[in-house]
Amino acid sequence: MSDASPSQRATSWLAAFENALTSGQTSQVTALFEADCFWRDLVSFTWNIATQEGHQAIADMLSSCLKDVKPSHFALKEEATEADGVVDAWFTFETAVARGLGHLRLKGDKAWTLLTTMTELKGFEEHKGPRRIKGAEHGAHKHRKSWLELRQEEQDTLGYSEQPYVLIIGGGQGGIMLAARLRRLGVPTIVVEKNARPGDSWRNRYKTLCLHDPVWYDHLPYLPFPDDWPVFAPKDKVGDWLEMYTKIMEINYWGSTTAQKAHFNEAQGEWEVVVNRAGQDITLKPKQLVFALGVSGYPNIPHIPGAESFAGDQHHSSKHPGPDACKGKKVVVLGSNNSAHDICAALWENDIDVTMVQRSSTHIAPSDSLMELALGGLYSEEAVKNGIDHHKADLVFASVPYKIMHSFHIPVYDEMKKRDADLYGRLEKAGFMLDFGDDGSGLFMKYLRRGSGYYIDVGASELVANGSIKLKSHNNIERINPKSVTLTDGTELPCDVLVYATGYGSMNHWLADLVSPEVADRVGKVWGLGSSTTKDPGPWEGELRNMWKPTNQQQLWIHGGNLHQSRHYSQFLSLQLKARYEGLSTPVYAQAKVHHVR
Amino acid sequence: MSDASPSQRATSWLAAFENALTSGQTSQVTALFEADCFWRDLVSFTWNIATQEGHQAIADMLSSCLKDVKPSHFALKEEATEADGVVDAWFTFETAVARGLGHLRLKGDKAWTLLTTMTELKGFEEHKGPRRIKGAEHGAHKHRKSWLELRQEEQDTLGYSEQPYVLIIGGGQGGIMLAARLRRLGVPTIVVEKNARPGDSWRNRYKTLCLHDPVWYDHLPYLPFPDDWPVFAPKDKVGDWLEMYTKIMEINYWGSTTAQKAHFNEAQGEWEVVVNRAGQDITLKPKQLVFALGVSGYPNIPHIPGAESFAGDQHHSSKHPGPDACKGKKVVVLGSNNSAHDICAALWENDIDVTMVQRSSTHIAPSDSLMELALGGLYSEEAVKNGIDHHKADLVFASVPYKIMHSFHIPVYDEMKKRDADLYGRLEKAGFMLDFGDDGSGLFMKYLRRGSGYYIDVGASELVANGSIKLKSHNNIERINPKSVTLTDGTELPCDVLVYATGYGSMNHWLADLVSPEVADRVGKVWGLGSSTTKDPGPWEGELRNMWKPTNQQQLWIHGGNLHQSRHYSQFLSLQLKARYEGLSTPVYAQAKVHHVR
Question: Is some CB atom of chain B closer than 8 A to the CB atom of A462?
């Protein structure tokens, strides 16, 4: 068949695949895969986010799922392509309850990677395009209510006389995007957020903050940014967009509301969550509870001897007020990741004396190189011109199994080392400790494995290299004195303001405090792949721990990630919640075990 | 050449056209047109909105404009098509200062209709797509200001220490869309609006109001509605969208601000406009003044004997509070157009006794028929599926010369008469006076000629036909008594609430009061084509009077129309203003004469 076109080869593979699935003979199915193969499923076969690696895993999954899933109607979606002996194909398919979109990589006539994703539940499609509502009901209707009256009724009753099905704790970008999808799916949802307005979590950060990811990567669902949106949006502009988006999407958003305590009532099969809304305690009883507080927990503040004796101002980077409050002072920033670099640069730009204390090596990825080498193919003006909008890009991204993702990234960073050799050389000369991840796979793998350890360079690295930002590397703060800090190498640095750019603890601490330590431990560690690299202990999980999928605590979910992940994975989390809301059977295959707590 | 493909025929026509234009021989150019021909130009050749009808008019325009315009680079944009012996072609072209998009209809090898439109000024393109700004300036910059600081600075200085180049009076949909385009073009602009918030002009209307035009027709520039937006958006939802849009587009919008007096300072060549902003008088000195107050003026309230003796509540439809304020009362509505029908229906739906007094015949266009027969081809889900988005639809719409537009519409309404014969029959049986316009060309021509005389039926006609809404036709109110009204046929109707759904006066009244009667008369009548049909006196103008183009008052402009018109024509008005802001030469060809005042 080697003379057949990529589309012909993909089509016949899909036909054979459907036959094999229909036969129910798992050996027939696995025979269509390479020995070294991966099947990633986003809730369409497994009601889970899971990657099956190898024939046995695929066979086991199918023996368990096939009878319920009843897959059918596999069809090529567009012309397949071939590059480096690998055929790339997009296809649509159906299951008993849903429609799906898939991606296939063929080596020869056998599947190397397969992605299956759920796009919509049959009978519960979104009211969009030809299905959109009319808005004005034509004809005459006694005592009809206006859109505004109905909207106000909902806001007056939901959470009081009516209970939401889903409660989302955390009204940042993640909570907002998930709520927008649930709104479209008609699932009664409330978002609670401690800040007053949507977007405040961005507005409250230091004033020079801009997105480190480019616009093509950052779109929210349903309402893409206008075509003049800046490549790197300033944080207050993002804040305004989130506020507008929340309003337009008709999200039931409770600002100035803090979650106090959550308890799962086994008997009722529902949560009891006490929230304080603008001073008043209200008990909500949602069936599903989603934590959208970000994937990290409380600020990490190391306990350094003498801290209590410090005469100046000390705060975590998340509380950093920006340069205006530091005029004329000597600032020491402990840490060397994104926030540390951004804060140091803003201070230098305002003529403030600043020193960065680097404790461990950091990966530096110059923004322009990152755009061109790592993201450009999927998220850029060129990609859009080539027909790869963010919807398609997200799926391409999802189609690469985590197990082999690093092998896609290593060449990118090898190229970056060459391209930016001059900067890297001068940074090392300045004493900066550099790394590219344990296996040289760079920024995104570090993000997935540990969520830290890097800086997307938008200018500060030059300031470190040329000494404008003073650097003390191979060092830590050994003790804090009233007007200075003493480093491990004995240096004493004068210090009026001490910034702890020391990252965040585990997300589980939120769970432990808000629900209980038992539930936090039952859910276990959040984020990370189990890659057995620095700060990502094994065993291998194959997917991010506990993200966007069922956890070991019934009816408790965790949502978050960057704008790209929140956008893409909110689709699958919203479909999981919708299915449960409608009482569909959702047998979860291979619920992940918990290997680490906190 | 009859065996040549439509694209070949269009291509060779464009080549011949460019040669003829380059030769400067106007006779060579007109030889390429049918005797019965039209060339409509939207500011690309004439710096005006003007249609040349016939060879002589085209020759005259070219003799005057060609030397400045220097047209070139005419090229087919996509495959041309042919239907009923007419070839349809889209093309791009350039002038000395701009890039343009055009549309051509060929009969045989000669042009029947030609449309030329300006899309952008060379060197002043919008910063979109690949030209978008970076947002975050990478690198280190001493004392850089954040987006928020710059935005706040602008809001603090513009209108005070800095003067806007353009002042837009009226912050409804029209003013907002124009301001958004000027923002993109970098023209300093302020919008003043008497209501507090953008969208209030919609929010303040009667509660059941929904758009009568469908979503595909209603998009604003740059930010289309999400794909689940209702077909007919409720007015409060539209209000929220406009408010969000104004914020996101970074428009300098002064709410709670009323324009008091405007005077053109000949010596300075600028306007002096006194506005009251939240109680404080401020004098603005813009170079260009745009009236975006809608195309109609003050509410028409007929002076009826006894009005002062009326014991109940009487108000114009624009002030109608809706049914809640009318419970248990007897309501008489004078008038039979859109507002009258909407108000009567809402009253009936709330069990309120209501009578419509019809003075003159009205055109009824059932909404569904209007969608399918009149708009469907250009503005619908199907149109979008066929690749006709609203950008293309707007241009197709613009490509039909007003002189022959009615001939495109008459067949549509002949079809509507058949399709809705039953409703029309029952309406006439109920005594309702029906018409389809003087020449049977229906709703849109009535809208263009006189801006009144119709109802888009979303349900009220059935209530009129079946008597739920009581009808007194061939009638007017002769006198008003304390608790009743007496009609011309002698009937006395008990009346607690009297609603004047009697339309609006001429837009010039705004000009007369805000500037001066002299300037109002110099500008002359606004809207209407000079079709010599009812309420649209001749002579023939060929375009809407004074809309979106230079008026006879220097540096004074009028903007408005429905959402479709405000969206499309704001493009050409913004380009005219930008060209003047940048000091480009903008010789206006054939400034329209004034034939009617007020």
Answer: yes
The predicted pLDDT at position B2 comes to 58
- Chain A contacts in chain B segment 162-201 (CB below 8 A): 184
Contacts of residue A58, Cβ cutoff 8 Å, sequence gap at least 6 = A26, A29, A30, A33, A37, A39, A52
CB contacts, 8 Å: B223 with chain A: 223, 226
CB contact under 8 A, B222 and A207: no
**Euclidean distance between CA atoms B45 and B31, whole angstroms:** 19
CA-nearest residue of chain B to A382?
A: B130
Cβ burial A144-155 (10 Å sphere, 16+ → b, else e): bebbbeebeeee
Beta strands per DSSP E along B339-404:
353-357, 363-366
Closest CA to B451 of B322, B565, B595, B344: B565
A325–B contact, CB cutoff 8 A: no
For A488-525, letters b (16+ CB in 10 Å) and e give eeeeebebbbbbbbbbbebbbbbbbebbbeebbbbbbb
Q: What is the pLDDT of residues B90-104, one digit of tens each?
A: 999 999 999 999 999
Q: Are strands A454-457 and A363-366 parallel, antiparallel or unpaired?
A: parallel
From A129, A143, A146, residue closest to B381, measured CB to CB: A129
Q: Which of A102, A105, A98, A101 is nearest to A10 (CA)?
A: A105
B323 → chain A, closest CA residue: A143
Rounded to two decimals, the ipTM of the complex is 0.93
Q: What is the pLDDT of residues A90-125, one digit of tens each?
A: 999 999 999 999 999 999 999 999 999 999 999 999
Sign of CA dihedral B402, B404, B409, B414: positive
B278 at interface of A, judged by CB pairs closer than 8 A: no
Residue of A nearest to B250 (CA): A237
Q: Collect all residues with Cβ–Cβ distance below 8 Å to B450 and sequence separation of at least 6.
A: B528, B533, B534, B535, B536
Q: Compute the nearest-CA separation of B211 from chain A (Å).
A: 8
CB neighbours of residue B510 within 10 Å:
22
Is B88:B14 a contact under the CB 8 Å cutoff?
Answer: no
Helices and strands: H and E segment counts in chain A: 19, 27
